[in-house]
Specification:
heterodimer; A: about 290 residues; alpha/beta; Rossmann fold; 2 domains; nine-stranded mixed beta sheet; 6 helices; B: about 550 residues; alpha+beta; FAD/NAD(P)-binding domain; Alpha-Beta Plaits; 3 domains; eight-stranded mixed beta sheet; 27 strands; about 35% helix; globular
């Protein structure tokens, strides 16, 4: 089984990490770049197939040279056998279309894998285009919003449970033959019900953490010539999307006083309860009055 | 895979404490394919002990035989001095019991279980992986797998059923497997002790200074007398490298009878003037914990096996608490390794089904069973623990005649306490725990003049400082009978519950029904420290939380 997982570096939007200037514009230079959080689920899905069926997981990204740390993060935190960074000045300022052309060319250059995994939209652009467009370029069947996955290696098929319309209330089971493109939903949960799978998982996790320490030994960087694409079809030149302006993030409409409490702190939760007590007393009063207790 | 399509290992070891680790390492040494399943998020995260591990000269196996480097890397301080303090109010008479402590002792170290067990688990995983198995944490074995009524493997919360040629139950004092096999019941408080412990932050150089010991030395202090109200039991203090383990151990039936609050008894020790010089003015508690301790002389299984199941360590009641010396982990190590040895031998004779019997034989042949269930005790307890005799001994001792006796014996008492054969036969009555130490202190003791300024944290603070991963909506303990009569004892005996405390596991409530009041208890398992007290003193359906859930001890 050869699987490729696509990932992207995004600004770390977590509290305390992200910086905005006075116009509300993101300060990329001051905000660290991390692996797109949703891509973790794609990697988890790929790791599950690796544990159960063996093979090889390639983690791939397109972006500036600094994105190699994003790849390292994926290798260290979840899993990867090798890393590919598609990086070239010609690819700068690509929109999702040009990115998809680039990624699909790189995947084909690897030789068509059995499965390609992508996460459910990135935390910065939030378009959700790149996965499906790349799949379209590769001419593979696509299954999105996947929450669980079973592969029948002999038959060359996979069976997936997916959320219909992204709704947790409705789940359908679909099948596809290899090669196929899978978009993992943030609700994806890997399943390891046998001890031997868990032992393999433990081995693989230890190996990948060790490998990540010298990740550059496992990293290949390709430019446009390596993947044999015409510069006119990639980067800014190949991007039909034009961003005309960016509006600052509007401030919250009202400045309310907020106190952060930890749900695991008994003391702090007691304060919350005490603050709510007068309201609760009123509610009880009403219930008694109407006798609907 | 077995014929039935189930996953199969030659050996499955349940629990990665010292017993499980010894069993697994020995099995791997014999080339047996061994799977170890541990319910904690990491080995040691569920495990608590008072904190002394012994290597006995007479033992068939010791932990450092099986795991070279154990003392240097996994243990705290070697215990080089051992004292017993007889306390009556401020009066204290101290006996040096180092001779008794050193009897049959190759070495003895203080340990903290999170550090110790996770260290062991790493080595166990490496060893067992080489023979086709390995160690998995976060997996809770919830019962025995049977085929045609015979035990053939285990069932788990997280994994599909697994078959094995041998199942080693090393799942601790509240062994769900021993219960499932019908080998243990959790009904009689008099068969158990409850231990409660505080790990207190004290820097290493302060420890050596306050206790007057060298860098590679450690000390144990035991406490008995009138500082625990009338509850039968005692206290201990052990020096770790950078902390102190201070705790109390009481007979569970006595705790219930006196309706004592375990955390208050612990506070009674922490605030006694005797501890002032060791605790200083700056008391920082790192962790509050509790566990049950089986009383081996009453519950150690003489035949700890059934079908393909063998039971080792606390799960088999192999905890020797006799007189002032408490030995558990060393026996678990011996038992675990002997069980492994028995399986390897039975297998080589092509009769793996005889492993259980062979294991029991080895426990007897190696003298382990005699230590756990001394023949002398049966004779003494038959007479000495009967109410009338016990009361007579007690009142005789407190009478002027008895007091003269204690005075006359004077210095010889220390020598008597240091006699191993006598300490093995101490009866479970008030006399040795409360009356005798109190009389000794009153007659021979001198008053402590120090003022103890320690203010122990409240129970609420202690619970608040613990780490929990609560399995929301899936409580692991259910009350079968919530009447106060059936389950009310838990309100006081549970170490994380107390009368008039709303933040604990068990609370007493009054229900108005049809014009009359009913006393009931309610249960919230969130603060549970998984000690098992309520499994015995209340009417519950008691299980451990599933893998990785519940309390997580950082010290243990």
């Amino acid at each position: 089984m050869h699987t490729v997982v696509l990932t992207k570096g995004v600004p770390d939007f977590r509290e305390g990490q992200v910086s905005f200037d006075e116009n509300g514009h993101l300060e990329r230079g001051k905000t660290p770049t991390v692996m797109n959080p949703n891509d973790q689920f794609a990697l988890e899905a790929a790791l599950q197939t690796r544990v159960r069926h063996g093979g090889h997981v390639t983690l791939m990204s397109m972006g500036p040279p600094g994105y190699k740390d994003v790849l390292r993060e994926g290798m260290a935190s979840v899993y990867a056998d090798d890393l590919y960074l598609i990086s070239d000045r010609e690819m700068a300022a690509a929109d999702t279309w040009a990115t998809s052309i680039t990624l699909s060319a790189a995947i084909e250059k690897l030789g068509t894998p059995d499965l390609v995994f992508a996460g459910f939209k990135t935390a910065d652009g939030e378009t959700g285009h790149t996965g499906p467009q790349t799949c379209w370029c590769l001419d593979m069947p696509i299954i999105t919003h996947v929450v669980s996955l079973d592969v029948d290696e002999e038959a060359g098929t996979l069976r997936a449970k997916r959320l219909v319309e992204g709704d947790i209330e409705e789940i359908e089971t679909v099948e596809a033959s290899f090669p196929a493109f899978v978009v993992a939903d943030p609700e994806f949960v890997p399943s390891y019900r046998s001890a031997s799978h868990r032992l393999t998982l433990k081995d693989l996790r230890a190996e990948t953490r060790e490998r990540a320490e010298n990740f550059e030994d496992h990293l290949t960087i390709w430019d446009h010539a390596d993947i044999n694409v015409d510069p006119d079809y990639i980067g800014l030149d190949g991007s039909p999307t034009i961003v005309s302006s960016v509006d600052p993030i509007p401030k919250a409409p009202a400045e309310r006083e907020a106190t952060m409490v930890s749900p695991t702190s008994r003391e702090e939760m007691t304060e919350v309860l005490e603050a709510m007590q007068p309201l609760a007393a009123g509610a009880t009063g009403t219930a008694e009055a109407t006798g609907d207790d | 895979m077995s014929d039935t399509g189930q996953e199969h290992y030659e050996a499955v070891v349940v629990g990665a404490g010292p017993g499980g680790a010894a069993a697994a390492a020995t099995l791997a040494n014999y080339g047996v394919e061994t799977l170890v399943l541990e319910r904690g998020v990491e080995a040691g995260s569920k495990n608590v002990s008072g904190g002394l591990i012994y290597a006995e000269e007479s033992a068939p196996y010791t932990i450092d035989d099986l795991f070279p480097g154990f003392r240097e890397e996994a243990a705290e301080r070697p215990i080089t001095e051992y004292f017993l303090h007889n306390v009556a109010g401020r009066d204290v008479k101290t006996f040096d019991l180092t001779d008794l402590h050193e009897h049959d002792t190759e070495w003895s170290d203080a340990v903290l279980r999170r550090k110790m067990d996770s260290w062991l688990a790493e080595r166990v995983h490496e060893k067992t992986r080489e023979t086709g198995g390995g160690l998995l944490s976060g997996v809770r074995v919830n019962g025995l797998l049977r085929e045609n009524g015979r035990i053939v493997g285990v069932t788990c919360d997280e994994l599909d059923p697994i078959t094995a040629d041998i199942v080693v139950a090393a799942d601790g004092v509240n062994s769900e497997l021993a219960r499932d096999a019908g080998l243990m019941n959790w009904e009689h408080p008099e068969q158990w002790f409850q231990g409660v412990k505080a790990v207190v932050d004290v820097p290493g150089d302060v420890i050596t200074e306050r206790f007057g010991i060298g860098e590679g030395e450690g000390v144990a202090h035991l406490f008995s007398g009138d500082l625990f109200q009338d509850v039968r039991g005692g206290g201990f203090l052990y020096t770790n490298q950078e902390s102190l383990s201070i705790g109390t151990v009481f007979h569970l039936d006595s705790l219930v009878a006196e309706q004592a609050e375990p955390h208050e008894l612990l506070d009674g020790l922490l605030t006694h003037p005797l501890l002032a010089e060791w605790l200083g003015d700056d008391y920082t508690e790192i962790e509050y914990s509790a566990k049950l301790v089986p009383d081996s002389k009453k519950v150690a299984l003489r035949e700890p096996h059934k079908d393909r199941l063998v039971v080792v360590g606390d799960a088999a009641g192999q905890m020797q608490a006799q007189g002032p010396i408490i030995k558990g982990m060393n026996h678990a190590v011996s038992a675990g390794a002997l069980a492994a040895e028995a399986f390897a031998e039975a297998k080589s004779r092509n009769s793996p089904e005889t492993a259980g019997e062979l294991y029991a034989q080895k426990l007897r042949a190696e003298g382990v069973m005699q230590k756990l269930r001394p023949r002398g005790y049966d004779a003494v307890s038959a007479v000495g623990e009967r109410g009338a005799v016990a009361n007579l001994t007690d009142s005789l001792l407190t009478s002027s005649v008895g007091r003269i006796g204690v005075r006359l014996l004077g210095g010889q008492l220390e020598r008597l306490y240091n006699t191993p054969a006598l300490s093995m036969m101490v009866p479970d009555t008030r006399t040795p725990y409360v009356t005798l130490p109190t009389v000794i202190a009153e007659e021979l003791g001198t008053p402590v003049t120090d003022e103890n300024t320690v203010e122990p944290p409240s129970l609420e603070e202690r619970i608040g400082d613990l780490t929990y991963d609560t399995d929301i909506g899936n409580p692991h303990i259910k009350l079968r009978d919530n009447s106060f009569e059936a389950s009310g004892a838990a309100v006081t005996a549970c170490p994380v519950s107390a009368v008039n405390f709303g933040g604990g596991c068990y609370r007493e409530e009054t229900m108005q029904t049809n014009g009359h009041e009913e006393r009931v208890v309610s249960l919230d398992t969130q603060p549970c420290v998984e000690c098992g007290t309520c499994a015995i003193v209340a009417d519950t359906e008691w299980n451990h939380p599933r893998g990785g859930k519940g309390v997580e001890f950082t010290q243990g």
